[in-house]
């Protein structure tokens, strides 16, 4: 940063002049976006000094209705992520840009990974102000991803859930419970989010008890829903109970891919065991208050919970 700062003002003027003269020159604009990203990284927490030129350029690049959207979007998103990563604090203009993530995801999942990183940045940088304004957009992103991408795509969104749990554990159940009810969500995806929810039970926060009913209700639904997806897939894969090929079957790429999928650690994990263990931790942490919270559960919900967790 010390090497760049003496020339920062001149570089800002240069970037502004080149951008103004680059209308219709997509290749030049792409190079400028790359240079701006490097400039922002070099400035670090001093990067707000270039916001006057940076933010209008960024806004144009992430506008999916812009004529140049297809050419500029990827580099604009990389610039967006760098801007958030090196921002000392959230500013209103950046805060207002977040719904563009939803629009981009609605268009396609081509930029899923960078969109996830941008969402993480917003949660960390924007804090409670961000979530109070854009909670519905975050939930919409999760709804878009779950059920519409493969398991690898789903796993790429788990850092968002992880950060939400760390920063806003009490808001997470409401954000993801509707997502889990979607018809096109696979059992593995439900299980992944159910495991994420169960972690909240281990937090040393008295407010967790206020969400206990909701957390357990979602986890119960996931457990009792079973693993139909895996059963259906495995039945058509010529995989015997020992995991080997049927006689005369040639191992294919698809067969190996599914073997890898079934060997995924999450398939070996037991959600009901995880919920039981974390529920016991919750009881230890909160004592009598936990007992009161459990006692307030609806009898039918508690009965389903006992069935799901195989409790006596």
Word description of this protein:
By secondary structure, the chain is mostly helical. The chain has a domain at 186-231 and 258-312. 70% of the residues lie in helices and 0% in strands. The chain has 17 helices and no strands. The protein has helices at residues 8-20, 26-43, 51-61, 69-85, 92-97, 99-107, 112-145, 151-167, 172-180, 187-199, 212-225, 228-235, 253-262, 265-268, 271-286, 288-295, 299-308. The chain is elongated. The relative contact order is 0.06. InterPro entries: ARM-type_fold, TPR_IPO7/11-like. It holds the Pfam family TPR_IPO11. This is Importin-7/11-like TPR repeats domain-containing protein. It comes from Prunus persica (Peach). Residues 31-176, 182-309 form the Importin-7/11-like TPR repeats domain.
Query: Largest sheet, described in full?
Result: none
The N- and C-terminal alpha carbons lie at a distance of 63 Å
Report the principal-axis shape. elongated
Uncertain stretches: 228-245
Helical content (DSSP H or I, runs of 4+): 55-70%
By DSSP (H or I, 4+ residues per run), the number of helices equals: 17
**Mean of residue pLDDT?**
83
Q: Total strand count, please?
A: 0
Q: Spell out the helices and strands N to C.
A: HHHHHHHHHHHHHHHHH
Structural class: mainly alpha
Radius of gyration: 24 Å
Estimated share of beta-strand residues: under 5%
């Amino acid at each position: 940063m010390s090497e760049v700062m003496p020339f920062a003002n001149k570089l800002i003027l240069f970037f502004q002049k080149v951008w103004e003269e680059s209308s219709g020159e997509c290749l030049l604009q792409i190079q400028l976006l790359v240079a701006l990203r490097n400039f922002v990284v070099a400035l670090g927490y001093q990067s707000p000094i270039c916001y006057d030129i940076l933010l209008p350029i960024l806004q144009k690049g992430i506008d999916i209705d812009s004529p140049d959207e297809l050419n500029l979007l990827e580099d604009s998103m990389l610039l967006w992520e760098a801007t958030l990563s090196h921002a000392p604090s959230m500013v209103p203009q950046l805060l207002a840009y977040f719904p563009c993530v939803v629009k981009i995801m609605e268009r396609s999942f081509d930029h899923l990974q960078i969109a996830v990183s941008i969402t993480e940045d917003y949660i960390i940088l924007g804090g409670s102000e961000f979530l109070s304004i854009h909670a519905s957009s975050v939930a919409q992103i999760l709804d878009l991803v779950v059920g519409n991408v493969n398991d690898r795509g789903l796993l790429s969104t788990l850092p968002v859930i992880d950060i939400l749990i760390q920063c806003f554990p009490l808001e997470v159940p409401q954000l993801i419970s509707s997502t889990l009810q979607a018809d096109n969500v696979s059992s593995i995806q439900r299980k992944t989010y159910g495991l994420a929810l169960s972690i909240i039970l281990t937090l040393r926060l008295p407010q967790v008890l206020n969400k206990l009913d909701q957390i357990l209700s979602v986890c119960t639904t996931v457990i009792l829903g079973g693993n139909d997806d895996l059963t259906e897939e495995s039945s058509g894969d010529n995989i015997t109970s020992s995991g080997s090929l049927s006689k005369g079957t040639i191992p294919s790429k698809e067969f190996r891919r599914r073997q890898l999928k079934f060997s995924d650690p999450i398939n070996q994990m037991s959600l009901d065991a995880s919920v039981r263990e974390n529920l016991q931790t919750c009881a230890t942490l909160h004592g009598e208050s936990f007992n009161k919270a459990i006692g307030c559960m609806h009898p039918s919900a508690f009965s389903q919970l006992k069935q799901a967790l195989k409790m006596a």
